[in-house]
Write a structure and sequence with these properties.
Elements (H helix, E strand, L loop, with lengths): L18 H22 L21 E5 L5 E3 L2 E2 L3 H14 L4 E6 L5 H14 L3 E4 L5
Parallel strand pairs: 1-4, 4-5
Antiparallel strand pairs: 1-2, 2-3
Length: about 140
């Protein structure tokens, strides 16, 4: 006959049967697909109404802007040049040593202008700087 018996060959079988592995993986995928929508549901609650509060003005970060034409503004007030910016930032730093700064740079502004502004901020001694972008 064409069948081999164990006594004819003592060689180890070198092939792995992956069918049970595929079956287990498919079951796990089905379990994942069934349970995933259950995890995203949240509890809907009605939050209580409270009085509106305002943030402490002292802790508000400075708003530094650079528009597309390269005009620099600090808290919406235009500045003449980088030296005026550095002087204004040093004055703000004297009032509050832990002051932060938010940098708003137009997407059309030349990168070198933003780098110059950042260097002026660093020379003024402000360490906390954040870049503000729009979320889409």
């Amino acid at each position: 006959m064409a069948f081999k018996t164990q006594s004819e060959s003592d060689e180890a079988m070198s092939e792995i049967n992956v069918t049970p592995l595929v079956d287990v993986m498919l079951v796990l995928v089905i379990i994942l697909l069934v349970t995933a929508p259950l995890l995203t549901q949240s509890v809907h609650v009605t939050l209580p109404k409270t009085a509106e509060t305002t943030a402490d003005v002292k802790d508000q970060p400075l708003q530094l802007g650079v528009d597309a034409q390269g005009v620099i503004t600090l808290n919406k007030l235009p500045l003449a040049d980088l030296a005026a910016l550095e002087t204004a930032l040093k004055n703000e730093l004297l009032q509050n040593p832990e002051i932060g700064l938010h940098l708003y740079a137009d997407q059309d502004v030349v990168y070198s202008k933003v780098a110059e502004v950042m260097a002026a901020v660093q020379h003024a001694g402000i360490a906390k700087i954040a870049f503000v972008t729009l979320q889409q």
